[in-house]
């Protein structure tokens, strides 16, 4: 064999070895890039356990990866900014950078200032001299602040015999009806019998939209004529659900702007009626579109005043660079974020998980 042939054989051997060795990394890198399976990919699941009426509704546990993909755009902005801060020793520009990063992720002025004030105290107390540690302490502080009870109530407090009603409220187009469909799908899969109330009598197509979701998850829909009083539709649905011994009523309402007093009064009436025998309001869930940003806060204030909101559903987090609004809503208004919408399909709903959220938002975990 000539020297050239020997060199060629050795070169082929070296290249083949390098390529084979790299394969697992290539595979892992591909997995990391592509993230979790898309939400619509069917996955084999074991049958869910039957739900007892007094149990909080079971969580569909979100993995950090689910949140990470949902918050991808928030993460890119906030995390990239924090990464450049982490490489420096903390000085005033570090603090400015942190402020900019939090404001950019829509945490809001008030919450950002309060958070950084607490972080300054922590940094002084713990003698933090490294910007990376500071970012870590920020994650820890945010995680500690997100300590609300997020369980969804299967029955109304102190109204055990009554048929529980979950009322969905919010401004136009935020995803109320879609969320009812997703929640109905989840509860039906858990073996609960669900009645849906078509309380949006304002928009002509609203009942058809809810009917499609009801058919999909085997729920019964109670509706009224177009323009009917939404309170009476909800009342009819609660009576029908009580008569059939259904487990829960999911009540839709028409979207409304928070500054329209007559419409907010109408909503307060729907809630009062839903809370009368034989029903009891177990959850009033305010649906907020994550892409709305800081306006979500003023919505939350007005709806909480009119309807005694028990929790927030944050929708469209899949398309938002504004994931910080979650933190602002909880910190400023004390309203627990209970559910998160990550897409338009029936499975694109996860329970809000603070650990995954902070990790996904800041790119560092809080431990
Ligand atoms: N990407 C994404 N889209 C969503 C999500 N939730 C709802 N949508 C979409 O948002 C649009 C509005 O949703 P609806 O459920 O009709 O909103 P609504 O609050 O009931 O609207 P009104 O009844 O008109 O006030 C629809 O196109 C939904 O498919 C979500 O979590 N992610
Ligand atoms: Mg609707």
The low-confidence parts are 15-56
The first-to-last residue Cα distance is: 61 Å
- Supply the helix-strand structural class: alpha/beta
The strand order across the widest sheet is 3-2-4-1-5-6-7-8
What is the chain-wise order of helices and strands? HHHHHHEHEHEHEHEHEHEEH
* Known CATH architecture of the largest domain: 3-Layer(aba) Sandwich
Helix content: 40-55%
Question: What is the average of the pLDDT values?
Answer: 82
Quick structural summary:
The chain is α/β, with parallel strands linked by helices. The chain contains 13 helices and eight strands. The protein has an eight-stranded mixed beta sheet with strand order 3-2-4-1-5-6-7-8, with helices on both faces.
Polypeptide structure, described:
- It is a single chain.
- Strand 5, helix 11 and strand 6 form a beta-alpha-beta unit.
- Strands 3-2-4-1-5-6-7-8 form an eight-stranded mixed sheet, with helices on both faces.
- The protein is globular and about 85 Å long.
- With 367 residues, the protein is α/β, with parallel strands linked by helices.
- The protein folds into two domains: 82 residues, SRP54, nucleotide-binding domain (Four Helix Bundle (Hemerythrin (Met), subunit A), Up-down Bundle); 189 residues, P-loop containing nucleotide triphosphate hydrolases (Rossmann fold, 3-Layer(aba) Sandwich), CATH 3.40.50.
- The longest helix has 32 residues.
- Helices cover 51% and strands 11% of the residues.
- Helix 3 runs antiparallel to helix 6.
- It binds guanosine-5'-triphosphate and magnesium ion (MG).
- The site of guanosine-5'-triphosphate (GTP) has 21 residues, from helix 7.
- The site of magnesium ion has 5 residues, from helix 7.
